[in-house]
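Researcher: We're reviewing a set of sequences before deciding which ones to prioritize for further study. For each one, I'd like a predicted 3D structure that I can look through quickly. This is NADH-ubiquinone oxidoreductase chain 4L. If possible, include the structure in token form so it fits the rest of the review sheet.
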Amino acid sequence: MTPVNFSFTTAFILGLSGLAFNRAHLLSALLCLEGMMMSLYVGLSMWGAQTGEANFFTTPILLLVFSACEAATGLALLVATTRSHGTTQTKALNLLQC
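Model: Here's the predicted structure for NADH-ubiquinone oxidoreductase chain 4L, in token form for your review sheet.
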């Protein structure tokens, strides 16, 4: 495994472990998701550059577009829960209530 592959694999695993173990606030969960998406973007970009095929150059851009949409949706949910519940702590949120 090359050092570049090791670094973005480690970044993805750290983001995943941060999402699994540190769920106190909604913003920290969103930041971990963004870290995971950026490591996937770097991985797909490096994979497309290593293979040299033109078909793989559009995939990282498509992933970046979906990541931006996910970030916008997550921030909209963060603002909505802050306004409705008054806090961003995930323990205070009850998803079964309207």
